[in-house]
Amino acid sequence: MPSSADEIRDWLRLMHTTGVGPEFARKLLTAFGLPAQIFAQSARALATVVPARLAAALLAQPDEPFEALAARTAAWAAEPGNHFLTLADPDYPPALLDLADPPPVLYAKGQVARLACPSVAIVGSRHATPQGLANAEAFARALGGTGLTVASGLALGIDAAAHAGALGTAGSTAAAVGTGLDIVYPGRHRALAQRIATDGVLLSEFPLGTPALSHHFPRRNRLIAALCRGTLVVEAAAQSGSLITARLAAELGREVFAIPGSIHSPLAKGCHQLLKQGAKLVETAQDIFEELRWAAGEAPCAPPARLMPLRPNLARPGHEGPASDDTLLRALGYDPVSVDQLCEQTGVPAAQMQRRLLALELDGAVTRLPGGLYQRTTQI
């Protein structure tokens, strides 16, 4: 992760430049390297990659509020257990690379290695029934007991029950939130958040000081969906935000599970809707294990693979460069291919494969296509 306050400031400056989102950030990183190298370019050079107005904005002198935020973030990142993660870091969650717009910067608090572990999301209504809360906690305890990390969103109701059930198990829990990590929302979950930061991990893409705003939570939901192999919806109304998480999971090729309920219950409507759309009906945790082909006793989490530099000039001094990717490029060929197919052909583990593909994508050697497919764009 960034080793100095200057590196943190540069990443924040990139992401806080008005108009620069994940897409433009990746283009700039691909073209020029680490943020410090981006800011060393001329406006003319930057304008070959982004619109001229963004090139000018990138080179504008940051204001005092930004400098205060950068200093505050560097101080926060220096505290034990706090992590400022970027696309160039080995602890960046590999599953998030399946997103069309993986956040270039993430904030984590706690056991950050859990973000690379096999996970299942448990989500549902904030106004859950007592039975729904009991089901969420029981499923979380069973899933976590076999080494799967249980992810959710720290909300009232089902989310809180899922976190509570997974705490203390082998897999523990991960909470993706819609605020800065210096804010706990809802406030009544402060003690729960502290327990998660000790035994599991809290995750956010929002800068410190970011309050709880309604449009932040769909972005939080996409992190939950991407982190996990599958998403279990316990109780949900017909218009529940949990259905957003389930839809995003399905779009990413993850499994979607739902617990059925009474046809008279409004909190079963969302689950029944998902079941009609092809979600897997589950009655016990064993139903999930069988669908995911997960067996108790499997190693819950391998140490995260070292992240290959995004491109040669993104390697920090003293870091070793990546081994030749000729074998991977040959396996890619020029036809679209999935990550699973590449793993099968090369024997490279999925987490390491995701990182190598990101390095090649940002170096212009491969292109990511819709549906999670990749295609080679360069000769060996």
UniProtKB/TrEMBL annotation:
InterPro entries: DprA, DprA_WH, DrpA_SLOG, WH-like_DNA-bd_sf. GO terms for biological process: DNA-mediated transformation. Residues 84-292 form the Smf/DprA SLOG domain. Residues 316-372 form the DprA winged helix domain. Belongs to the DprA/Smf family. This is DNA processing protein DprA. The lineage of its organism: Bacteria, Pseudomonadati, Pseudomonadota, Betaproteobacteria, Burkholderiales.
